[in-house]
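Entry:
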Amino acid sequence: MPIEIRQATHPEAVRAYGTDELRRHFLIERVFVPGEVALTYWHTDRLVVGGAMPSEAALRLETSKPIGQEHFLAERELGILNLGGAGRVSVDGSVHEAARLDGLYVGRGVREVLFESAQASDPARFYLVSAPTHADHPVRHLRPADARRLELGATGTANRRTIFQYIHPETCASGQLVMGATFLEEGSVWNTMPAHTHDRRSEAYLYFDVQAEHRVFHFMGEGDHTRHLVVADGQAVLSPPWSIHSGAGTSSYGFVWAMAGDNKSFTDMDHIAIGDLR
């Protein structure tokens, strides 16, 4: 099970990064690798971000040296969202059938997690985000109907979108992890604008439902020194606490957001006026 290491970065250093350096530090280009569990360990809030894409055989979530424990979830919790074909997740022998957009919360202490696709010709794409935790919470199978739903934005500002909060204090208990998905309506392309930062939390964005000929321009960096990444379908962006995280696509798209840090309040953000962006 490959695991890549990404270090924390200082905003003053990032001001001097070129395109290649920005992509190397903040963009995960291969989240879903057929027949593998591929993970990235980010030292900011010790987040682990990755994907499991089983084909013929089941895939096991293994521990590794960066995790530093006998098994992966010995001191961690895990959020899962299926963005592909139908599949199943086995948690210590308990099987959960996972349709597209079904989620799962797996708490600390679980020893074995297995991922399978119902059909190898239409594989599941399990998106995974894990954070350390010091609390025990039960496994929850989370369907879209179980999520807290918010409708935000307006057609006139091209950001009409629906937010599904899967792992959230009002829907699913967790230690520090929160996770959800946002869907932009056709004709809307902007997400998270006006921009904000989460000084007390880090975040990861996974973009999906981006057609092959389209891209999302993900804006990051300090509010007065913005940068951008060009992101394709199935790629993820690591967003430090000091960075904005906003995007505009060349067509509509969806993204999965996940955060970890000091609290789980969805509204804990520091807004930046559009006129103050540079």
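Residues 19-26 form the longest helix (8 residues).
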